[in-house]
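Q: What would this chain look like folded?
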Amino acid sequence: MDEAVAVVEKEQLFRPQMKVHIHLSDELLDYVGVLHRHNFIEVVYILSGRATHTIDGAEYQVKKGDVAVINAHETHAFVADASCDEPFLAYDLMFTPDFLDEGGLAGEDFSLLSDSFLFYSLFPEEQDFKKRFNLIPARYELGAVFDKIYTEYKSRKLGYVNLIRLYTAEIMIHLLRKIQTRDENQLSSAQHNIVFEVMDYIEKNYSIKIKTEEIASKLFFNKNYISKLFKKETGRSIHEFVKEFRLKEVCKQLSETGRNIADIAMDCGFTDMKTFYATFKKQMGCTPKEFRNRERMDLPKR
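A: My prediction, written as structure tokens:
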């Protein structure tokens, strides 16, 4: 297997303006057995044969009926088992993290589903099914749902995208039910890293307008997911953290410089002066001018 990592762009596979794509593995052989990564989510359902699935350096043996979830930026490849009597064949379902949101599926009934892309961060790290599911056909024939998605995608009949969205949600729900035993009160190390990434983004971009949707897009996460993780880890919302960080920077500049207060506020991301003054007084208990004068009085004499 070639050790070079190929990068697959969404535009190479997806139809124009589409946020979902599906194909059979034998329809696109360029990346079978080749390490590659991409910035969209991929769900692979094994139809026949066996293979070794290498994902971020770990190897998993997959066979007919298994499902693998590959997240944005993970390096992976399927290498078919040549000794198997059946040829390796799989469905490759690909979609962007916001695909399901567009169908109004992000309500309370779908909270576990729609708020949780990257899936691996929800998995108990000690469990073997971190990257792979062993499905029991007698319990639920998931392959039939992939069949429906593939048929709809090929036919392009009226409303096919909406049907694919619903079928994709059905698949995700059944997969996520398999990991409901996780401890919901503890964040995994991967989830902690997500929160740190959000903080890092805010600290580097606090001077401009920040929307949770933009952070989610930059980090390739669902906005509801990162919002809930952030709240669980920090005890406050992303919006509250942004406001607090901006005020901290304002206070720093008020103390250390003689710059105009309005200029400082604007440079720290406050675009409305009336809101800025009201927020500052509410949080600090005084006006910016009073804060500056107080800080200067407290400075040590030289």
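Residues 49 and 87 are 5 Å apart (CA to CA).
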